[in-house]
Model the fold of this input.
Amino acid sequence: MSGDLILLWLILLPLMGGYVSCAFGAFLRSRDPKASEMIEKIGLAVTLAAVFALTMSTALGEVGGRTYSLTIPKLCGMGIYLVTDGFRAVYAAVTAFAWLTSTLFFFWYGAGEKHGTRYYVFTMITLSCTLGVFLAADLFTLFVFFEGMSLASYVWVAQEQTAKAIQASKTYLAVSVIGGLALLTGILLLWHATGTLQIDGIWWYCIQAKSRTELYAAGGCMLFGFGAKAGCWPLHIWLPKAHPEAPASASALLSGILTKTGVFGVLILAGRVFMGDEKWGVVLTILGVATMLIGAVRALFSTDIKHMLACSSVSQIGFILTGAGVVCGMSSGGYAYAIGGCLLHMINHSFFKLILFLVAGIVVKRVHSRDLNKVRGFGRNKPWLMILVLVASLGIAGIPGLSGYVSKTLLHEAIVLCHESTENAGYIVVEYLFLLAGGCTLAYMTKFFVVLFLRKPSPEVVAADIRCGKRYAPVVPMVLMSVVAFLIFVGGALPEVLMRPVAEFMSPVTDYPPLRTLPELFGWECLKGSLISVSFGVLLFFFVVRPAVMKRRVPLRETPEYVDRAEKIPGLEQVVYRPMLLSVLPAFFGTLMRGLELGTEGFGLIVFKICKSILTLIDKTIDGAMLLLRRTVLRPVCEQRTNTLGEAICNPIGHIGNIGVRLWNATFGRKNPRQADCVKAVNRARENVTESVKLVSRSLSYGLMAFCIGLIILLVYILLNLG
Done:
């Protein structure tokens, strides 16, 4: 299969396979529901396995030096362009594997749901668009698939159809739409400033741009759009709301994969558009530090396991954004560490959250609760589950020996080198905040592990264990999660064998030099940073988390009660965004318009009075002329009763009807028949129809229907004249 066909099938296969599987299953559902469900699941599993095989083939082909590309000119107006490089090939494979694992998990998690087919259809649409984002060769192609991915994944958040799920889906959709509009604005501004949208080589056009201000404006709009999807503060509001309400399989993809599409865009800005721009680096570093700290602090005090993992995702995205900002701020050296750390932590975070969210889904499925007080002790006597959570928890906390330690150490070393190269004392603060956020990660993951595996089981957990027995989780997804855990372990134990080659292979996503050597990961300088972070974590867990989250201090194996101290604290959406959109901005623009109105009132009043006088004179003249005509020439006509057009048509029809009735009666010899007045009946029907038409034409539905018909005619006209 040629490269072009591989890329084409990567986009089309999820759409075709998902549609055929679900349509065939729906066709057979009325005859044999169980068989139709089985066929639907088998079709989806085969499709996803084929997509994963294609992505692995693409990645292996890239390793062998084969770069695939696909060009579809004039599609969507500007054409669709896809290409592969190391980053694109690897993340396409990671995406396909995560989709396969989470969808197989949903076969178990969503068994018996009414809207399972809807979930499968939009999951496959989202997969197709997500692969399109990672394989995009230009920013317009990226935008097209980016918007399709955002709209299709909205269904995930609203899947449960509870009040909270609907509210969370509205927030997610609002952030996605506003972010998409900002992204499109930025892309158009960048096109105007540089004359190109091709991702490869755009740096050369950016340094030759005449207006740096226009370039910053374009970058700011694009950062707004990409940051909203990535979960960057202060646009992270959708993430802590959407993840808890979506199914666990969808949460794993939202956190592990979809946020990385936004990070991919941020890396394009940092590594190509604003390469070496220290001002841009400072802004991005500040946003990254704020994101990782705010997410970590919220996760510390959360008692909802899925909400805690969602806030953790915000924090981990902050680590990556900080690395992307640092690479722009460096004056020399350390580029490879920063970019390598960002790329490796993207993959690590995708793997960590794939395990953690699916484990949270197992807990929620069995206990029917996300509250720490009700799910405590669920993992006792479940060694397989304990090993998976332990590996993912220690990995995301950056403990030496696991892959998370490698990526976080690279980011930390990049911050240190940035301070040495720029002599900016601010990066010392960034370094210690980085280590503090790492300590927060260890603290809240320790809380998560202790509650699930070391506490005495709650009554809800005891009932769940009796109900489900030893089959507490699906086997195939657990095997796939075990593969992920094995990769996390191998990546940390053999970083030179696995992590460094992967980072070097993915580095062409930016124009910075690749990661060719690793620092001494197990030397004192690197271990010192990890030790400081672990110390922060231990102190936070025992002296902040336990006193704040627990009602009273108890030994680890006792039964405490957990309290969400931050539950009643309103977020940015309630404090800032809703008041701004619903009150402040309308009041501001209303006041502005009123001021403009008062400023031009004098001139406008004079013009208005002159126009009113002229129109009044014309109106009176016409009224006088019409009155004169009615009383002289048109008087006989006005006095004579005239029929309307409807009456002129209906009266002859009524007379013909009367003649027909008389002939009928005469033919069948009825005596003294009661004559029906057909003229009145026809006119009465005409009046009813006329009144109905008036009512319909005045309704909103009629207006919307007329608008839609006009819009369809306009679109057809545009499509016919595109050539």
Observations:
- The chain has four domains: 1-238, 276-564, 574-639, 645-720.
